[in-house]
Amino acid sequence: MAATTLFELVSPERLFFSQPVDMVVVPGTEGDFAAMPGHMPRIATVRPGVIVIFEDGKPKERIFVAGGFAEMTEETCTVLAEEAELVSDLSLPAAETRLAGATEAYGNIAAASEPEKAAIETELAVASAMVAAANGETGYH
């Protein structure tokens, strides 16, 4: 049996995913990174995007995340996500509605406080990434 990495994805609501995988590609804020068996330990921030889980050298599952943190060791990769949903469960109309709301809020950002501005910018990034994921722009085909 080939070596595997235990991948766990935790959202605020639940343990979303927990099982051994060949490789997982995570959208990091400094670029995508892959976690595989024997990976050098690392802690990284996760940007809004799609986590791709590989088995037998092929993408098996795609999960949209709204950002968070990742911790990798030689045997595990754990992602603590702010929000997580299977890409196959995303609704393009709902994602577009979310993006429209974020875009409208961004249009009024000048009147917002600094914490509100940060929240609006974060929501715009999440909504944009969700629309891309719902449109099938997940990479690693």
Which helices and strands, and how do they pair?
Blueprint: E1 5-10, E2 15-21, E3 23-28, E4 31-35, E5 42-46, E6 49-55, E7 58-65, E8 68-72, E9 76-81, E10 84-86, H1 92-107, H2 114-134
Parallel strand pairs: 1-9
Antiparallel strand pairs: 1-2, 3-4, 3-6, 5-8, 6-7, 7-10, 8-9
Give a verbal description of the structure.
The protein is of the alpha+beta class and 141 residues long. It has 2 domains: 5-87, ATP Synthase, domain 1 (Sandwich); 91-134. The protein is built from 2 helices and 10 strands. Strands 2-1-9-8-5 form a 5-stranded mixed sheet, with no helix packed on it. It has a 5-stranded antiparallel sheet with strand order 4-3-6-7-10. It starts with a strand and ends in a 7-residue tail after the last helix. The mean pLDDT is 92.
